[in-house]
Amino acid sequence: MTLLHRLSTIAAACALCAAASAPASAASETYQWNSVSMGGGGFVSAVIPSKTQKGLAYARTDVGGAYRWDSTSARWVPLLDWASEEETGLLGVESIALDPKNPAKLYMLAGISYFNNGKTMILRSSDYGKTFIKTDVSALFKAHGNGMGRQTGERLQVDPGSSNILYVGTRANGLFKSTDSGATWARLSSLNVSTTPNENGINFVALDPSSVVGGAAQRIVVGVSRFGYVAPNLYRSNDGGQTFAPVAGAPTDLMPQRAARASDGNLYVTYANGAGPHGHWAQPEPMDRGQIWKYNVGTGAWTNVTPAGVGSAFSGISVAPDNPNKLVASTVNTYQQQGNAWGDRIYTSTNGGASWTDVIARGFAKDSAGVSWVGDKAIHWAGTVELDPFDTKAAWVSSGNGIFKTANINATPATWTFNVAGLEETVPLNLVSIPGGPLVSAIGDYDGFRHTDTTRYAPIHTPSMGTTTGLDFAARKTSVLARAGGNDAPGMYYSTDTGVTWKKSAVMNGKNGQVALSSDGAVLLHSPDNSATSYRSTDFGASWTSVSGLNASSARPVADAVNPRKFYAYDNGRVFVSTDGGVSFAPKASLQSGGSKVIRAVPNREGELWVPLNGAGLARSTDSGATFSSIGSVSYAGAVGFGAAAAGASFPAVYIWGTVGGVKGVHRSSDAGATWVRVNDDAHQYGGPANGQFVVGDMNRYGVVYMSTAGRGIAMGVPGGATTPPVDPPPPVEPPPTPTPTGQCVYQVRSQWPGGFNGAVQITNRGSAAMNGWSVSWTYSDGSKVASMWNAVLSGSNPYTASNVGWNPVIQPGQTVEFGFQGTSGSTGSQVPVLGGSACAKAKK
Hints:
five-stranded mixed β-sheet; about 40% strand
């Protein structure tokens, strides 16, 4: 017997993971926790609707946990915010399984290879995810919720014949079975599959409910993420997993992605030339080609039902439960015109795949639901598309930036609404709270935002550069900010109006990295990623000189909050100090090795510096880094930050992610670390500060605190009152003219660059009758010009008129239609003009 088989007979330890407050031995305060509102943002790997309870659905993400759809409040409810710092990887959910006999029961396979040594768990809930029992299966197999192929599946399944029987396909260790509702697992040696060249392994398990005999499904189909010419990639069992055999007839030059069973017994399987969701040239797996096949499980016959003339990679597939011929499928990693952006295609069929309708090409409208940044973004990496089992006109599609849903996929055009209320999945990398000003964030993949109301969706930084890593503001000239990032297109930007507008620096050394602004805003330091050289500029990046003495790779300098001549940096026990405005640094004190580079200068206090040293606690200097003392009550400090002082206090509030009195969490001190109170609870741990490694207090509201997460956005704690953001906050609109129009038009500048911009106009029918035929007109007074347009016919030249095209003349009551355009900027950048025309000012009858 192998070690793997011996381990599979051991019951893994289980612990109830319900919401709980801190132990009585640790002082605590009641806080309300939520996420700062940004709206979606990250890759939703799959949407899984319940087929037994109307209005119930779940979503899983690659780094942001899992969510349950609450149809009453029309928002997504996070389910895994209880994950501790020792369980950060559980925010990568690789599969979700719903019990077909009990809608309250669900299971998750969760874990990320690079967090917590790859700790992997099966999570079991019998109350819709309110609480979970955790089974650690790391010794048997490991998940990678953020790995290639994360959108394939589902690899975790509940047997339709018995709620006690579950199957899970793994990335490297084959197929496992549980007969006690997921408490223990044993490997099925009958399926001779382990790892695959792309390390995605078994990517789906499909159980046939029509084959149930003796309380268990006998027919099992397993998909394997490899090319068929390497080894079989589809297997079938007819005896409940006692034996498996390869399935013949499937394409050998593609990999199975997902499968959906029709009520007539046919199995529809999507294929692509890779694991996805994007290409991986190291394999090589370009993810640019695929097909859809129908497998008759009774006869074993295969039929190629790929949409005619389409060669894209396919992933999502769904069949209406009441009509075996009604299908919906999605491409993945395909970039074709989709309104004002480029993304995937969605196809429907009413005859079992004999013919298909491209619902994007037929007519596409997007409702951003108040999330302005998604206006010029596409539905892409569409790993799953699912018909609502209780209303098969409606459909969800998962995307690299969230979830979209249409109420009527048969409409022309079908309107896809950004369905992310409550779903906050981004990776925060930096954050500043400006006294008397906004909260400004730096976000992976989505630049960051300027938040003036943390409960409402905020505008994204423009111009866009993708990921922003470095961010700072001048402590004594708070209108001045700088940010750096850009990944493959490195950029440095600065603002002199607290982040309302940004200008690009002429020169940038290296890529990404961190920035620091002197307290007067006159000196900008930049430490690029993976560089031992930092740079200094006194003209916002028009020119740079090398900094001497700061010989630390990927340094993270911080400015003194008062004296513009002082900067500090910490690197693995070494404290560096500059007293000449960042021209040079010299080593000062030596601290315990390790610790975080994210050190903090105390607001309004010259020479005061705090350093979180992880297991060595929290260190404090009051003499500009020459000497340090220890905050004795803190035994572990992963992050430290400051916020507005308590009423009557002379020292800013101090916040840490750390351990006080044996309890790890977010703690606050109002007396410079003499005493602490825990302000989070066990239900709100978010996996700890993870990538961004920050805890930041609000400089304008005492007690409010923010923390970075691995993928749950910016966690926000507020003393007392509720912090739940309003559902679907509406976009700003101009006051209606008289008489009240049936049409509302909104002009938006979506993105800008030197000399050009992308714009869009949204037309919403606010009346009670359909609008048939529309036009919008406007005039620029600053010399801006329209160069090209999509989803509308352009005529005239200042004034410009945009009219409907053949497929979008009708706007139903409550529906929004959007057209976009590209233009050249005039003297003021890109003017926002007043809109006119029939669509905007048609009076009610």
